Each structure stands twice: as structure tokens, then as C-alpha cells.
Amino acid sequence: MQYISRALFRDQALIAIREAILGGDLAPGVPIKDVELAERLGLSRTPVREALARLTDEGLVESKPHSYTRVTPLDTAAVRDAHVVVQAMHALAARLAVPHLVEADLDAMRAANTAFARALASGDVPAALAADDEFHAVAVRRGGNFAVTATIDRYTPLVRRLERQRFAAPTGRHSVAMHDEIITAFAAADADLAARLVERNWATLADLFVVEEN
User: Fold this and answer.
1) How many domains would you assign to the chain?
2) pTM for this predicted structure
3) Is there a domain that residue 161 lies in?
């Protein structure tokens, strides 16, 4: 019989709960009860509690001992701070990746951008997010910097709800052309240009802060 580690159950719970929050099934401010989540997921309370602790670290869940656990209300200031960090880390990853990129990496970016454009055209926001993640992940992987990767993983969940808004709007399609420009810069091995273009691409999220504040 194959042993299934507790960490695997925790990761399953983490992915499911995070997606429920980012997808709006668990709305900002909604109370969370580990017993109910465990029943919905078919898991024990322990991995659910561990997943909630991780989501607390990510800023998606907040709790007060002996009082409440809930989905974190949208905090524009916190999201703005996280966005600045994520934007800077992706730009740095692009710069670090340039000396290590090969043609297969560029092909992977092109394929991801094609999938991204297709998802946007069909209004499939989750698929667009997945394709956009894969596009940017190529440079992050090739950059090979653990601290950059860890920082992106740590703060991206905070900006994900804004990304969903961007890709649900017609203006999100502008990212397809931006991705093409980024690929061209990578193909030319122009680290400075690639970093600037990646930074500009992530900067488009800043326009949504005005919407959130209003």
C-alpha cells in the first residue's frame, strides 16, 4: 500500500482553498470554518488548518485567536505593496534569465502566449491566468534565483484577484502584444529591454487600483 504523506493532503487543501478565494467562491470578508471546509474537501481538519495557516502567511486569510477566521477583505494598500514587489522581481528575473535562455524557452513562451490569447478571446479567465503564469514562469525558472522565485510565490496571491479583473476586461488583451515584444527582446538577448518590457507589462495592473479605491 502506498503511503500518502500529510503534506500532500495539506497541499491539496491549499490549492483548493486558494482557488476558491481567488475565484470568488469564498468572497472577501467571508468567515471560514475548518470543519466545513474539511467536509467539503473530504479531508480531515489537520491539513485544512495547515493550509489556512499558509494562506494567512500569503495574506489571503486572517484570523483572531478564539474569535474568527475569514477571507481577508480587499486591502488596496497591501495589494499595491505586493504588486510593486512582484513587478520588480519579474523584471529582475527577466534580466537574470537572458544569458541562459535557449530557443526551446522562446518556443515555450510563444506557445504560452498563443494559449493566453485564445483564452482571452473565449473569456476563459482561469485559462488566461494559467497561460500568463506559464509565460512568465519561463524567465523565472531560467533566472535560477531562489530568492526571486520565493518572493514571487509569496506575494503573487495578493495581486491575483486584480489579475482576474484585468483579464476579464477587454484591456487585458493588450498583454498579448506586450508578451510578443518581451519574446523579441529575449530573442535579441537584450537584458535591459526585456526587463523594462516585463516591468511595463506588470505595471498595467496599477490602473486597477483606481477602480478598487473607487
Assistant:
1) 2
2) 0.77
3) yes
